[in-house]
Amino acid sequence: MLTVVTSSVEETVLLGERLGSLAGPGDFIALTGELGSGKTQFARGLAAGLGVDPSVPVTSPTYTLMNLYSGRVALYHFDLYRLAGDPEVAELGFEEYFYGDGVCIVEWAERLRDLLPQERLTVSFSYLDENCRSISFEPDGPRYRSIVRKLAFPRGEDGPVTEKAPHDMPDAE
After folding, report:
1. How far are the Cα atoms of 4, 28, 84, 110, 154 from residue 21, in angstroms, in the given order?
2. CATH number of the domain at 2-167, out of 3.30.460.20, 3.40.50.300, 3.40.50.620, 3.30.499.10?
3. Residue ranges of the domains in the chain?
């Protein structure tokens, strides 16, 4: 697991952008955390990292349930806040996107149970104060472990402070 503390909206967006630059076809990113903890700001950054046109507003699809954005890879942005769980998600046919060729980012992913892909990146947001957020990355599967390793050890980039758990350190060569 990797935990990052951001001290501004801009840092949260930057962190999302960094993840977006690493994301690719078929990736599933589950966002969890309380209301107002930064999930949508992070999604904005992720969209930028995927090359979504900066003039296109990236908003939470709370009422529309899913927004589609075009970038170097299609981005399917879901918000499950208003859904009860797996039965409603299945009825709406969202599961086909979860295993498709785009990148899926799902706000309120904790509402999924059986439909949550086994291999995924779970990003958990905690509100620390008005400006600061604790953002934890929990990879499930080799692809996502590789992504988290790259997030933890960027090459010469400035950005939010990262805290690495000992088991996330790269293997000595």
Report:
1. 17, 14, 32, 25, 12
2. 3.40.50.300
3. 2-167
**DSSP one-letter code for 171:** P
Judging by DSSP bridges, how do beta strands 133-140 and 120-127 pair with one another? antiparallel
C-alpha to C-alpha distance for 84 and 136, rounded to whole angstroms: 25
DSSP SS3 for 33: strand
Paired with 4 in beta bridges are: 135, 162
Q: What's the pLDDT at 31?
A: 95
Q: What is the pLDDT at residue 157?
A: 52
pLDDT tens across 107-149, in order? 888 888 888 899 999 999 999 998 999 999 999 999 999 999 9
